[in-house]
């Protein structure tokens, strides 16, 4: 029986699970604007408590099938359970309690969704169905991205298509890149930034590469389309993520090459914490992608000095980071540190940072038995060293816990 036939025979529980997987890119939500959501008179979207459709779907699913989560699996997640406890205390003492507790609740439900996967979904047995559903969703995202690239703006302009945000060249803060000497807006799909689209696609591309041997035209067409949109995202770090991911896939059995790449990822991850101390390199100092990240990490260390043990609160880093930034070379936008691990340190303190690192590294060790999942985690580790979206944005966060669920 082929995969499409199996999908048609899913029971309600599996149907709802795969529906959540299919709908993970959706960006529809209800925003609660608060006085505290403004910093210096500017609305900061990270400080706006929001309930997304994804949150409702996951919460509904977990409430119905909570008894399917095995306690034995929960007991194995001591690092993340303790991490949640630290996040709770950090939110409790934060000046931004409401946004902190909104984030905590989302984190808990996504964690329980991860536990449901660990308890009920076998990666080996259901990989084909999981991939097919995910690839169909990504295929539609890529089609949307093509039209965005051609139009150089959003297609629907009303958030109705999976929550596509309205934008064009006149939109404040829109990402404009140099494309062979021409100013171009990379596609956003339904995400907040082309880098998020590129990062997700760089991981999905590796998954697609493992399916090319199957005699299905859809997989081949999807691979070409994802490769093309990944290129058009103009996300340099996503390109690197895809490149070393493909190398790890190709040279899986070559001990020297495989471990050299893994070592390089760990070295890069370690160096990402020391960006403020990398100075005097003219070829880097002139690059906005470098000095913005360096300034944000530098500001993060200043915040940490005053909030060492429990941080400033979940999602609250954007309320503080601007205070310690050096004189700007351009207009200022309050952003979290462009490093997932540093963001955890700033927002939850030393305890949260150590527990999250232990959870992530223990997941890497467990993933050693499955090369594809190991590659995905290494890609997330790399991308998380240069950006924050895997923890700060709901769609990549759900995608992250989806991957953790199979490990």
TrEMBL record:
GO terms for cellular component: membrane. The keyword Transmembrane applies. Keywords: Membrane, Transmembrane, Transmembrane helix. The chain crosses the membrane at residues 15-34, 46-65, 77-94, 100-118, 130-150, 196-212, 224-249, 261-284, 340-365, 371-391. It is found in: Membrane. Residues 222-357 form the O-antigen ligase-related domain. The keyword NAD does not apply. It is a multi-pass membrane protein. Its main location: membrane. InterPro entries: O-antigen_ligase-rel_domated, WaaL-like. PANTHER family: LIPOPOLYSACCHARIDE BIOSYNTHESIS PROTEIN PA4999-RELATED (PTHR37422:SF13), TEICHURONIC ACID BIOSYNTHESIS PROTEIN TUAE (PTHR37422). This is O-antigen ligase-related domain-containing protein. It comes from candidate division WWE3 bacterium RBG_19FT_COMBO_34_6.
């Amino acid at each position: 029986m082929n995969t499409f036939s199996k999908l048609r025979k899913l029971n309600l529980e599996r149907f709802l699970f795969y529906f959540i997987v299919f709908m993970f890119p959706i960006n529809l939500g209800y925003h609660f604007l608060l006085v505290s959501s403004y910093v210096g008179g500017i609305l900061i979207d990270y400080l706006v408590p929001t309930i997304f459709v994804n949150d409702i779907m996951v919460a509904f699913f977990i409430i119905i099938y909570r008894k399917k989560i095995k306690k034995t699996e929960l007991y194995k997640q001591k690092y993340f359970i303790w991490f949640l406890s630290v996040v709770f205390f950090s939110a409790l003492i934060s000046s931004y309690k409401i946004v902190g507790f909104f984030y905590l609740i989302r984190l808990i439900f996504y964690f329980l969704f991860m536990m449901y996967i660990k308890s009920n979904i076998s990666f080996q047995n259901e990989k084909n169905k999981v991939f097919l559903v995910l690839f169909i969703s990504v295929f539609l995202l890529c089609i949307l991205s093509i039209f965005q690239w051609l139009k150089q703006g959003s297609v629907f302009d009303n958030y109705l298509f999976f929550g596509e945000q309205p934008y064009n060249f006149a939109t404040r803060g829109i990402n404009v890149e140099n494309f062979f000497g021409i100013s171009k807006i990379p596609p956003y799909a339904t995400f907040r930034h082309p880098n998020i689209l590129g990062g997700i696609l760089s991981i999905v591309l590796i998954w697609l590469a493992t399916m090319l041997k199957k005699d299905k035209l859809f997989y081949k067409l999807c691979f070409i389309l994802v490769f093309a949109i990944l290129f058009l995202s103009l996300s340099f770090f996503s390109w690197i993520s895809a490149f070393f991911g493909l190398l790890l896939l190709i040279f899986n059995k070559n001990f020297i090459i495989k471990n050299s790449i893994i070592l390089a990822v760990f070295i890069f991850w370690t160096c990402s914490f020391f960006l403020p101390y990398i100075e005097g390199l003219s070829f880097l100092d002139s690059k906005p992608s470098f000095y913005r990240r360096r300034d944000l990490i530098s500001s993060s260390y200043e915040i940490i000095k005053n909030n060492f043990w429990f941080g400033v609160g979940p999602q609250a880093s954007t309320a503080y980071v601007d205070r310690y930034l050096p004189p700007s070379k351009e207009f200022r936008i309050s952003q979290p540190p462009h490093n997932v691990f540093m963001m955890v340190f700033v927002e939850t303190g030393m305890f949260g940072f150590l527990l999250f690192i232990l959870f992530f590294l223990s997941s890497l060790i467990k993933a050693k038995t499955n090369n594809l999942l190991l590659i995905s985690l290494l890609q997330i580790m790399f991308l998380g060293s240069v950006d924050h979206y895997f923890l700060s944005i709901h769609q990549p966060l759900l995608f992250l816990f989806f991957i953790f669920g199979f490990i």
